[in-house]
Design goal:
Elements (H helix, E strand, L loop, with lengths): L19 H11 L44 H6 L8 E2 L16 H9 L15 H8 L2 E2 L4 E4 L2 E3 L3 H8 L16 H12 L3 H11 L3 E3 H8 L8 H18 L9 E3 L17 H16 L6 E2 L3 H11 L1 H4 L25 H9 L28 E5 L2 E5 L27 H9 L8 H4 L15 H8 L23 H7 L2 H13 L7 H16 L1 H7 L71 H16 L1
Parallel strand pairs: 1-7
Antiparallel strand pairs: 2-3, 3-4, 5-6, 8-9
């Protein structure tokens, strides 16, 4: 038998170069060392998973990139390095919807549209959209968490927001397509479901150069059909109207002129249109458009901008909104506001968001709307939402304050599965009642409604994993390069909001009045002191160590079998001490310091001790300075 070589092959066989995986296995075997004594190893504050890839911090944050791993390509990272881009172009079809209205001559079409659950979209679209405002919020969107990273924590558009703002169904069948639609299949759908000729469908295909159809083509061919037309023509016109409606609203793409023909399949059976979860599909589509807009080279934002703009009006009413006094709660909340262009440049809006405080946020804006539109339980669903080939994660546990709960450190966001696993996604969505956040995961409700509370360790964790300040301090309006620019970038961004955070903690206590216990005031003062003291003194002032962050927890497939997110042990809720009883010792009263200090008057007694010359000189110098002033 021929001898073997070092690579394990015989000398008669051709020599094969080892693959990359074989070389890595060899390196791993060579680098194995005996395990050290656990007691002799200095563990960091938060242990990482041994197989987790370590990322270096980014300028301006995040310091720990275990969450925002693709931050280098984010628009916020480019802005911090001195690069900028113009406000995004917006795809808004609010004016086009008025070009095809359903009047009394088209009552048969209107009745079908009204039963579809999409009738509210015909009237709630904003004709005006503010480019600087929407662009500034796009700069705060993070694709990994599908949330806006604000200076005080994360926020996002939830299914409750979609249901309240648009009044469209958020429960029902998931809008899912097994594979993209081919151009020839798009022509067949147009002929079958819209009654067009093959010549017209082919001509439209050449015009769009994609499996889409122009919105103008739909209006020209079907807007003239009335109730006097044949039954087949009315059905064709109804399908065309619904396709035109979702193309102008829920699924507005960046072409700004066309809509994908694949959505026409959803209107094959007009009696089943209301059975789809249109709100969840719209939210997934908007998530993806926001994710695309975070790239520096992107210059346009698609999706339903009315939903995004109305969400900003609802949660930041003091900064951006202009209410319509004639609004009634029976209508969609999108009609509550008068859309307008925010005055100022993109940089001015960006700086306003950098200075935003937690007290300026309306965390629960729909309390007055619950009588007409109750809270949907599916808003607590934790999993993935889907729109055709678009799959996006939905994380209500990251925005508990928007539901009236105290925000805790959330688990690490899961990576959505591939779109080709649509059958598994559909089954998971159909059992959404089994995947709601449990009472333990939700934690405790806020002490005061709309206070936006969080556990004490949340902001320390958030400072480390987020990019809270978008505009660099040295590039702000009216600012010059000073000593602050010589600080580390993450230190400069953090120091800008320390005072605001301390004042926010005190403001919540002061707003509660005098009926609160003294311990509650004392706790708020300690929290403000810890914030202003810095991370070192804050860590030393607490006797209990901070919990391990969620980004370093171990995976547990029990919660999400195909997402495989890590399990997270939520930190124990902070207990609120009861008011002191009569048996408790009286509180320690510290007398105030004297208002002023006066040196003793000189005495003529020779036996009295002579005053200290240094003290007298100091007093004399201070008095001279006061006189000069």
């Amino acid at each position: 038998m021929p001898p073997r070589t070092r690579g394990g092959y015989t000398s008669s066989a051709p020599r094969r170069r080892p693959t990359g995986s074989e070389r890595r296995r060899r390196v791993q075997l060579r680098e194995v060392e005996p395990a050290a004594d656990p007691d002799s190893v200095e563990h960091p504050q938060h242990d990482r998973d041994e197989h987790e890839e370590v990322f270096e911090g980014a300028p301006g944050g995040p310091i720990d990139r275990c969450i925002l791993r693709s931050f280098d390509k984010h628009i916020a990272a480019k802005i911090w390095l001195g690069e900028d881009r113009a406000p995004l172009k917006l795809v808004n079809h609010g004016a086009k919807l008025q070009l095809w209205e359903l009047d009394m001559e088209r009552s048969r079409i209107y009745e079908t549209v009204h039963r579809s659950g999409l009738a509210s979209l015909t009237s709630c679209s904003h004709r005006v959209a503010s480019r600087p405002m929407l662009s500034a919020f796009c700069e705060r969107w993070q694709p990994e968490t599908t949330t806006f990273h604000m200076p005080f924590g994360e926020m996002t558009i939830t299914l409750d927001d979609v249901a309240s703002i648009l009044h469209i169904p958020v429960t029902g069948s998931m809008i899912s397509f097994s594979q993209p639609l081919h151009v020839d299949d798009a022509n067949a759908l147009l002929v079958e479901l819209l009654g067009t000729t093959d010549v017209d469908a082919s001509r439209e295909k050449e015009q769009c150069r994609s499996p889409s159809v122009r919105l103008l083509w739909l209006r020209d061919h079907f807007s003239t059909i009335t109730d006097a037309s044949s039954d087949d023509d009315v059905v064709f016109a109804t399908r065309a109207f619904l396709l035109h409606l979702v193309g102008c609203t829920l699924f507005a793409d960046k072409s700004a002129t066309s809509v994908a023909v694949v959505y026409l399949e959803l209107f094959r059976d007009l009696s089943m249109v209301d059975s789809y979860a249109w709100g969840a599909a719209c939210l997934a589509y908007l998530y993806r458009q926001l994710t695309t807009a975070t790239r520096f080279e992107v210059r346009q934002l698609g999706g339903y901008v009315t939903l995004l703009q109305a969400w900003i009006y609802e949660h930041f009413p003091e900064m951006f909104s202009s209410p319509d006094m004639s609004y009634t709660e029976s209508r969609p909340r999108a009609l509550r506001w008068r859309p307008h262009v925010i005055p100022g440049s993109l940089q001015s809006v960006r700086e306003r968001l950098d200075r935003l405080q937690i007290s300026e946020v309306c965390w629960e804006p729909y309390e007055d709307h619950r009588a007409e539109h109750p809270f949907p339980d599916i808003a607590w669903y934790s999993g993935c939402i889907k729109c055709g080939q678009v799959v996006e994660p939905y994380h209500p546990e990251r925005v508990l304050r928007q539901f009236g709960y105290i925000q805790t450190i959330p688990p690490r966001p899961f990576t959505p599965p591939r779109p080709d696993r649509s059958s598994l996604l559909v089954q998971y969505w159909e059992r959404w009642t089994d995947h709601l956040l449990t009472d333990q995961s939700r934690g405790r409700r806020c002490l005061y409604s709309g206070s936006g509370e969080s556990v004490p360790e949340y902001m320390a964790w958030y400072d480390r994993i987020s990019h809270r300040i978008v505009q660099p301090p040295q590039l702000r309006s009216g600012s010059t390069t000073d000593a602050r620019s010589s600080l580390p970038s993450h230190a400069a961004s953090t120091s800008d909001t320390l005072i605001a955070r301390a004042l926010t903690s005190l403001r919540h206590v002061i707003s509660g009045g005098r009926d609160q216990s003294a311990d509650y005031f004392w706790g708020a003062l300690n929290e403000a002191h810890d914030i202003l003291s810095g991370p070192d003194e804050t860590t030393a002032s607490h006797s209990t160590p901070s919990p391990t962050p969620a980004c370093h927890s171990t995976p547990s497939p029990a919660t999400h079998p195909f997402f495989s997110p890590p399990t997270f042990v939520y930190p124990p809720p902070a207990s609120v001490d009861p008011p002191p009883s009569s048996d408790d010792p009286p509180p320690l009263v510290v007398p105030p310091p004297p208002a002023s200090f006066a040196p003793p008057a000189p005495t003529s007694d020779p036996s009295a001790p002579a005053p200290d010359s240094t003290a007298s000189t100091t007093v004399y110098v201070r008095s001279k300075r006061k006189k000069k002033t």
